[in-house]
Amino acid sequence: MAISVSVPKDLSKIKTKMALNLTKRQIICFGAGIALAVPMFFLTKPVLGAEGAAMICMACLFPFFLLGMYEKNGVPAEKLLYYSIRRKVLRPEIRPRMNRTRFEEEEYRKKVRKEIAALERKAASGGRRTKDST
Question: What is the C-alpha radius of gyration for the chain, rounded to an integer number of angstroms?
Answer without folding.
Answer: 33
